[in-house]
Amino acid sequence: MQVAVVTFDGFNELDSFIASALINRCRKDGLEALITTPTPVVASMNGVEVTGQRPMEFVTEADVVLIGSGVKAREVIADDQLISKLRLDPSRQLIGAQCSGALVLARLGLLEDMPACTDMKTRPFVEARDITVLDEPFHAEGNVATAGGCLASQYLATWVITRMLGEGAARNVLDYVAPVGENRETVDRALYAIRSAEVALP
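The chain above was modelled as a monomer; its predicted structure follows.
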């Protein structure tokens, strides 16, 4: 089971790395996250250069696709050639977006019938596409989810792990990474965010 963590130039380190690091704690159970980039090397919004583990075409074969955010999100959705490589299928893939990644899902037509979560700076641009933005950190309907706020990436990862491996696996990961002395609160908060925000499709 493979997860493509789509990471564009100008990416937010918290969004790509938190999700991939949490998911990769499940490698022994067969779930692996791979940084997926449109070019061999991308630079973060703070100038951190990262070599992609998979090219953008990998998204078509991945079981899960997470679209990270970044300061160039509006440039990404204006690039028809780049967008054309994102051939996603919610009928067979879990698809999630972090913060400004919601703009990418909107551009792909994946948010037409559902509200979304995003960060405060991106919110007006998502709303300009006639999408309702929730004052919540996480929302999912069927196989599509969005998260808003950098640290909400833990909820996106929790959703993926829960859907792919079950709640027990998610609990184990969250318990390990939680701040010392805050294990129970961290685990309960993340799982509550997922349960309360997930809408099952008919």
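The chain is about 35% helix and 20% strand.
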